[in-house]
Request: fold
Amino acid sequence: MDVYAEYWQLVIRRAGWDFISMTRRLFGKVGDESIYEITIRSKSGAEAAILNWGAVIRDLVVPLRAEKQRVVLGLERLEDYTKHSPHLGALAGRYANRIRDGLFSIDGTAYQLEKNFLGKHNLHGGASGFGQRPWQVAHWDESSVTLTLVSPDGDGGYPGTLTTTLTYRFFDDATLRAEIAAMTDRPTIINLALHSYFNLDGSDDILDHQLQIESDFITALDPELIPTGEIRRVADTPYDFRTMRPIWHQGSDGGLFHYDQNYMLREQSGALRRAATAKSGRNGLSLEVWTTEPAIQFYDAKNLNVPVPGIAMSRLKARAGFCLEPQRPPDSPNRAHFPDPVLRPGQVYRQITEYRFR
Reply:
């Protein structure tokens, strides 16, 4: 079926028959595992291309007046993702962000994880985290796709068999929702974060964008980007995005200030609420990120440098996009005053995150 689907997709594109659309195509293979790209659509004309490799949002296009605007960074080929992707559009986990020394304890038992960040700490679940492996396609239709992943006990050093389900779903407008649920058979830790790089106007960088974050506090970091444990006010600092302002800030050395920072959101109830708003200064398109998570990571992609072409871009370089990653705070397993990341048998981890484009 995949060969025929690809053939008819090619025929349709060459003929210009826009009223017909294929929703699934074979994107490539990793070993014997087939990787598919599934395209879902909203009634307003928004489209998202989802890979079952890393649960990646490979492409996302939204209506903008009489045209359409691509709003995420993506790559052209599967081998580019397996070799070069810095979690572009992926779901990071089992534990997104950083854990000091790759070490944590549950109920007095210590667990050692891979030290894949600076050779000292664990980042995004390790080199073979959730964003860098195949997921199973459980269901898809015109406006949604559901992916599943079973991570066995001891996977990456994490205890417990963890079963995760992720559904990407369009509403009638240009809102893409991610619904995530997970269960375990042993006490474990979990922190799943969507890791798309956004660019709302297709320019070479995002320095013309503005940003607002619904937060008064950050988790202070040491030079290795590990939380010190201090919860610090953003007022009168370069981290202050309480009101909409340019995404860039001039540092004391005259260069651009670099952001790779976790923000604690004002409301900690777990209800779906707005976490951040970004807006392009060129075309006026805005993105609101709504989430049930207690924190959000803002990364300005200063270190982005992908040596292969991106979709409709010759090269993905520094600040070609920005990340807004709903999450638990980094190193929460080792900080008792941070939100508890432990998941126990009988409990269900749930996260809802929405990208609302206006």
Notes: The longest strand covers residues 175-184.
